[in-house]
Structure formats: C-alpha cells, structure tokens
Amino acid sequence: MTTPPPVLRRARTAVLLLGVLFLASACGWSLWDSPMTTVRPRSDFGRAIDEIFMLISWTTLVIFIIVEVGLLYCCWRFRERPGAPIPKQVHGHTPLEVSWTIGFAVILLIIGIPTIKIIFKTQEAPAATALPVDVKGHQWWWEFAYPGLNFTTANEVHLPVGQTVAFRLHAPDVIHSFWIPVLGGKRDVVPHRVNQIVLTPEAPGEYYGQCAEYCGISHANMRFRVIVHPKGEFEQWVKAQQAPPVESTDALAQQGKEIFAKSACVGCHTIAGVSAGQIGPNLTHFASRRTFAGSLMQTTAPNLVQWIEDPGHMKPGALMPNLGMAGDRSKALAAYLLSLK
Ligand code: CUA
Predict the structure, then answer these.
(1) What is the pLDDT of residues 246-288, one digit of tens each?
(2) Which SS3 state, helix, strand or coil, does residue 3 take?
(3) Mapping DSSP to helix (H, G, I), strand (E, B) and coil, where does residue 169 land?
(4) Residue 323, number of CB atoms within 10 A of its CB
(5) Which of 102, 116, 271, 299 is buried most deeply by CB count within 10 Å?
(6) What is the Å distance from ligand 1's center to 211 Cα?
(7) What is the pTM of this model?
(8) Which residues, at least 6 apart from 184, have a Cβ–Cβ distance to it below 8 Å?
C-alpha cells in the first residue's frame, strides 16, 4: 500500500476532526434541548440540582486545566536532553504534601457543603398549602390520585404553574423510580414506605417522565407525562376530571360500551357509572389523555385497536390479557373509549 501525499493526509485529518466536532456539537445540542434534559430545569428542585451540577462541573474543569497545564509544562521543561545529567532525586516534600492535603480538603468542602444543604432542603416536609398527589408505580404504568380533589388518572399528571406539589410515592408491586428530568428528581418508589418529592413547577409545558429503576421486562415502557398548566387552566381540567365522562351517542361507541360492560374489562378498570375495577388504569376520562399504556402510544383509534387486540405485543409482560376482541369488537371498544372525554 502506498502512503497518500501529505496534502491528502492533512485534508483527511481535517475532515475527521470536523466530523468529531459536528458529533460533539450534536450531543451538546440534544443535551440542552431534549425533552429529558436535566440542564434546563423548570422547577425550584431542578434548579437546586442543576446549581450543584454546575458547581461541580466548573470546579473540576478548573482543576483539570491547572493539572494539565502543569503536566504539559513539566513534560516540556524537564524533558530529557542529550548529555544531561540525572536530575536530583527527591523523596518526600513536606510543604508540598501539606499544601495539597489542605487544598483537596478545601475543594471537598466547596463541593460538599452546598451538596449536603441541598440534600436536606429537598427532603423537607411540604408546606400545608402544597397540592398532594398520590403516585402509584405499577408494573408498568403510573397512577395519579388527587386526594383533595377526589379523582384518579393514569400516566399523565397535570399541575398548575407556580403551585408547590407534594408527590407521595407508593409502590404496590416492586421498586420503581419516579423521575421527571426537567423538573428535577429522581426518587425511588419503594414498597411498604412512602417517599416524597416536593417541587414547584416554574413554567407551563409538557414534560416527560420515566421510571428510572429496572422493574421488569417493560421497565423502559413505564413512562409518563407532566402537563403544567398556566394559571386558571388547571381548574378547568380538574372540573372536567371530576365530572362524569362525556359519552358519545354514536352507535359504534354505544356498542363498545355494551361490550365493555359485559366483558372482563370491568374486573380491572373503573369507568365512573359503569365499572369499579382497581387493577388497571381508571378510564373514566380516557380520551382526555394524550397517551396511554404507560405513555407509550398516542391516543388514536388505530393504536387503541392494536392495543386491545394484542397488549403483550405492544408492551411485553403487560398484565392486560388478550381478551380475543378482534375485528368489529375492538373497533367498537376503541370508539367507546375515545368518546370518554
Ligand atoms: Cu418501573 Cu422501571
């Protein structure tokens, strides 16, 4: 193999470097802009964590630069020269050893004191005015109950902007972890104890949540959404959730309601006025949710039909069985569920 001429080699290196830079900038951009970012916090809790992260990042960057500059300088200044004698051999240097022991202790204090302060601050009991939300992590979906407001929903939790919320975390089956990257967190959801996350969302928007503790085959499919409403809009949503479902008079939807009421669906799902099952998500206002099945799919008729016909295919290990609702029956059921606004 012949070596390419130097111009070509330089061009090749330049292209390679540009490629690496492009990839690095793409990473940086998605870190900043992705729906699961932690470096653009939108709550007091998120900002507190971000401040610590930034403090540690900048401190360690400064240390890195000082160490690298010192290292490069020493490599250059004390490099071996032809004919140079063996340098003076040094064993132990008390002032140096004392100073770097003190130096590192100071660095640890700079990082440790604010970190411990934030750990205690984010464990504080919520104020009496906080909105309580009972979160249940199930294999593999999230249940959200608003105890003061008397309704339950699934996979989508709605909050008013600027209002402190106290998430009380319950695990009926195994250990999960409740995490909304943009709003801060995360915290383990442990059977037989109630952990808590207290935070105040600071900007309206739709934020992604994810179970962050391996909890079985569909752990990755255990997602949720947090919808933070502008002032006033949250009360409207609460009123709609407290009201009985708005049903359609459409013949297909009515047929779906009959199928639902006469099938095993009622054993697991609650629809106010129709059924009282407690195992699966409450479906009273199913069609008001943007996503379903652990926030895995958009709430659309084709997705719902596919889900009803074969839940295990879309979410492996899903507790919901295949009830043999093929063809017209699944279409009717989907039409009924999509009418439950
Ligand atoms: Cu629940 Cu992972």
Answers:
(1) 878 889 999 999 999 899 899 899 998 898 899 999 999 998 9
(2) coil
(3) strand
(4) 16
(5) 271
(6) 4
(7) 0.83
(8) 38, 41, 43, 44, 45, 46, 47, 48, 49, 122, 197, 199
